[in-house]
Amino acid sequence: MLNPALQPYLLDCPQCGKPFETQVHTIVLPGSPAFEALKQAELNRSSCPHCGQAGYLLVPFVLYQPGRVTCFIPHFQEMSEQARQELVAPLVSMLRQVAGEEFEAEGQVQVGVSENYETMVQLARGEVGAEGEEAAKLRYLIGILQLMLQVDAVQLAALKAKHQDKLPALVELAEGFAAQESGRNPAMVEALQALALKLKETAPKVQEPYA
Predict the structure, then answer these.
(1) What is the DSSP string of 30-56?
(2) Which string of DSSP letters, residue by residue, matches 62-105?
(3) Where are the domains of the chain?
(4) What's 122's DSSP letter?
(5) What is the pLDDT of residue 181?
(6) Boundaries of each CpXC domain copy (predicted)?
(7) Which of 98, 106, 132, 138 has the most CB atoms around its CB within 10 Å?
(8) Pair 77, 44: CB distance under 8 Å
(9) Residue 109 to residue 70: CA distance in whole angstroms
């Protein structure tokens, strides 16, 4: 299955304010480079060529998997019903054109919507089941936290830069686990408390996501 063409996307960097053009995926098909990028939480992530500020381009896209179609639409719950349809319908229509016979052969396909990028990553990895989006998001954060506990200082700095928007949640999670392990696993408590301090000390000011 061919990878759909990238779409041009023009934006102003939220860090330096300079405009630049990049590209985004609006359709994600199994086996495509876009699908692999989503599994690695790298889909539609871009860096400003002027200052190097990196961030996710929170633009709607649709993920196709056999028997299921999931649209990623930020702030979906805040939209009117008309606004929702104006976003969902074109995405599904584009998918139908790109996937062609394979999509049509399935007949009735379940179409869902998620506001959470982390949930889309979990879907691509095949890790979202009956537990729902919130549990999937928590599991995603726990995975990042576990990785941060295992890496050296240089790798930790890279992870913090990549997940800077999640640092407050990661700090809260580390402190919560430390409290749970208190009195049972002193070494783990110490490691979690130390990590929480490092994340607090280096936490950048919250940047508005690319829109």
Answers:
(1) TTSHHHHHHHTT-TTEEE-TTT--EEE
(2) EEEETTEEEEE-TTGGGS-HHHHHHHHHHHHHHHHHHHTHHHHH
(3) 7-128, 139-202
(4) H
(5) 81
(6) 12-94
(7) 98
(8) no
(9) 10
CA distances (Å), origin 111, targets 43, 64, 101, 150: 21, 9, 17, 38
At 77, list the tokens: 């719950």
Spatial distance between the Cα atoms of 7 and 25, rounded to a whole number of angstroms: 6
At 143, the pLDDT band (50, 70, 90 cuts) reads confident
What is the rounded CA–CA span in Å between residue 94 and residue 8? 16
C-beta of residue 69 within 8 angstroms of C-beta of residue 95:
yes
Overall average pLDDT of the 34-55 stretch: 93
Residue 189 corresponds to which amino acid? V
Instruction: Please tell me which residue, 129 or 203, carries the higher pLDDT value.
Output: 129
Q: Is 196 helix (H, G, I), strand (E, B) or coil?
A: helix
Tell me the C-alpha distance between 159 and 147, whole Å. 9
Under 8 Å between Cβ of 177 and 187: no
pTM for the full predicted model: 0.61
Structural contact between residues 1 and 31, judged by C-beta atoms closer than 8 angstroms: yes
% of the chain with per-residue pLDDT over 90: 32
